[in-house]
Amino acid sequence: MPRAPRFWSRPPGALSTVLAPLGALYAAGTARRVARAGARVDVPVICVGNLTAGGAGKTPTVIALAERLAARDVAAHVVSRGHGGRLEGPVRVDPRVHEADEVGDEPLLLAAFAPTWVARDRAAGARAAIAAGAEAILLDDGFQNPALVKDLSIVVVDAGAGFGNGRVIPAGPLREPVAAGLARADMLLSIGAARAAVETDLPHMLGRLVPLATGMDWAGLPVFAFAGIGRPEKFFETLRSVGAEVKGTEALADHQPLTPALLKRLGERAAHLSAQPVTTEKDAVRLPPALRGRVMTLPVRLQIVDPTPLDAALDALFATKEAV
pTM of the full predicted structure? Predict the structure, then answer.
């Protein structure tokens, strides 16, 4: 996915105004699509999505939900479109067999935490997961996809970026107007230092991405960091927060393929800086196997400051199971 235009994050100006009619057409198309009737399956469907193009923290949120459901003894399976992969599915992701160009980088990462399925047809993916024993479906980035009826929809927003200039693609970063999207959501999760500035009656939780304690001492380590996520700068700041000496950075496009030419250039930059190459967990799964031992990762996990609304919603969805 190309880097977002800079004007998307600025107050509406001449260019976004010129593009606004195209944004209105895009919004109308989204509205028609989400109005379609979806299929209902026999287990709860929990959707994690966002209203903007690009990253907002959906993958860490899905991981956190998978761990939360596992603690409740609920067998949750993830269903994803598999952005960047070529397999249509439904296919269960096996990190020992599949590569990112087959199933996408996010499903490869998610498969380490819960059984994960890639399916262009989300309803077919959910049915395959249920046949394999799923007691809940975690729908990754499916908020604008009408294939399934959702029992709980969580909209994730990057607190720093918010909803940009408030306009719809291509005039802004939104997949649909904020009001229309939040009207279908059950709760909002802001990830960052503070909640995103938006008026809503939804439960509005605050989450933070914190480095995972792995025993690695980053203090003073000279690193060259590269990342192909929605906001690479957040990853670079996280490295600085754990004490790493960030000698150079390379912000890649979201899901950008790590071609041999690009990897050669990144390796040469790291060598020139006498720095250890380091990247995100999501980028690491796109590395060739021969390089995975030479590029370090800094894992992060989502911590929700007050998960009371989420726990109440999960209590309602799984009350029968917990009562058994």
Answer: 0.89
